[in-house]
Amino acid sequence: MTTSVRAPGMWTRLPIAPRAIVAGMVTFAVAANVWPVLLVTMGVKPAAMVEVVFLALFIAWARGAGPPRAAKAFRARAFRCASLTPTQWLWGLIAALCFAVTVHAAVYLLFRFVPYPSAAFRQGYDLSFVPSYAWRWVVVVISAASAAICEETGFRGFVQQPIEQRHGIATAVFVSSLLFMAVHLTKAWALLGMIPIVVGAGILLGLLAWSWSSLIPGIVGHFVMDVGLFAYWWTGIAGTFSARPITETGVDVPILIAGSVFAVSLAIVLLAMTRLRKAASNRAIPSIAGV
Known about the structure:
This protein has 291 residues and is mainly α.
């Protein structure tokens, strides 16, 4: 009796990095565009309910459930389904919240040095079609959840984790952050000053995923960050930024507070990563042969 061995296909012959990039970008692009399509075709209320169900199913799929069975192990590894202790959860959530504060402080500081281009930031984020103020907040929250879950799964999961295992954390975070920046450069708000903020956010999110061997803290931090970005900077439903640049006001108390908040929140994020990376590194991570 002879046993035939199936020859590897073209996909499995590719190096890890291009496979991870294609898998991550396709996963992100498909999943992230479900919510806009639902809004256009179904209206706000039914779309919101369908999107919540979709995101729950998407998380289950990304963690390894459903087809294709051949990629089940890869999906579970990429989603970083690590078991966290209560202490790790606490530090992870602290780091996630401080990450969001860091980004918003950086955006505030940027627009105290240069004028805030409200027209560019509001382009493409008009919520006038939403029937009420309360439902506008629902759209903001679901939009933030969709972006957080889909982007973290695609960039820090399916792209970064396999490259991380083959080429190391520095290369993996560089690649995932570069792709993260490239996707966001298509937005009208992607002025020059926002580039280092987007890149910095991508780096911190990549390090969060690596430090905790879990995407959950990064998803939480990304979600909190995006709720603020959508509600305040992009749609204005939470208020409108009206502070003038320091070229007009000079260095004032608000900018000193924002600078201090930025420094302290960033330090807390980095401290949390340092404290918990050692514990996370002791958790065994399976090989990447199934990518």
